[in-house]
Design a protein that fits this description.
heterodimer; A: about 110 residues; mainly beta; seven-stranded mixed β-sheet; four-stranded antiparallel β-sheet; 11 strands; about 0% helix; B: about 110 residues; six-stranded mixed β-sheet; about 55% strand
């Protein structure tokens, strides 16, 4: 069964450093998402991406965040200057279209020290 | 924006009994309501979903009901088994109003007592 894959599975970074989290969505999917889950809390929507542009973003997704689809398969989340409170599990997700099932990757656990 | 409330935060039931988790949502435009199961350290996995044109959906031991008027939806698990132990999240989105980012509830930690 096709899966959303993410790398790295775990990254530790110094506060103020830039981080790029990578995702390969399911190949025939058109909508891509990033979600965040702080330890022990709910999953929070960050951003959705369709047709090479951001479709929707939450209040969490401020100017320090950006997303990109640099080629036909990868979808990346960049955090420009990490803060301690950015420590969380970041999930990439994808779906075939609006109202279709959203499939999550295994997550990238980011620890900012 | 959408706000999803989920109750209870923790639910402990005896193996074989039923479990019910309830969620309410605020945005009457929401039309898609999935339920995800998340085991410790793992990804959320879809277990069942329902759209606003349907009042109830069942898949083996799992069922979901939706009351659009009251803006609430519930997950029902019958004949619970130890492997049902996990955190369950409800979510809501408006798939017709944009790119349907899901708004999640805070989760219910379901514990199945042997």
């Amino acid at each position: 069964e096709p899966e959303v894959t993410q790398t790295p599975s775990h990254q530790v970074t110094q506060m103020g450093q830039e981080v790029i989290l990578r995702c390969v969505p399911i190949s025939n999917h058109l909508y891509f998402y990033w979600y965040r889950q702080i330890l022990g809390q709910k999953v929070e929507f960050l951003v959705s991406f369709y047709n090479n542009e951001i479709s929707e973003k939450s209040e969490i997704f401020d100017d320090q965040f950006s997303v990109e689809r640099p080629d036909g398969s990868n979808f990346t989340l960049k955090i420009r200057s990490t803060k301690l409170e950015d420590s969380a599990m970041y999930f990439c997700a994808s779906s075939q279209g609006l109202g279709h099932t959203i499939y999550f990757g295994e997550g990238s656990w980011l620890t900012v020290v | 924006g959408e706000n999803v409330e989920q109750h209870p935060s923790t639910l402990s039931v005896q193996e074989g009994d039923s479990a019910v988790i309830k969620c309410t949502y605020s945005d009457s435009a929401s039309n898609y309501f999935p339920w995800y199961k998340q085991e410790l350290g793992k990804r959320p996995q879809l277990i069942i979903d329902i759209r606003s044109n349907v009042g109830e959906k069942k898949d083996q031991r799992i069922a979901v009901t939706l009351n659009k008027t009251a803006k609430h939806f519930s997950l029902h698990i019958t004949e619970t088994q130890p492997e049902d132990s996990a955190v369950y999240f409800c979510a809501a989105s408006n798939s017709g109003g944009g790119a349907d980012g899901l708004t999640f509830g805070k989760g219910t930690h379901l514990i199945i007592q042997p």
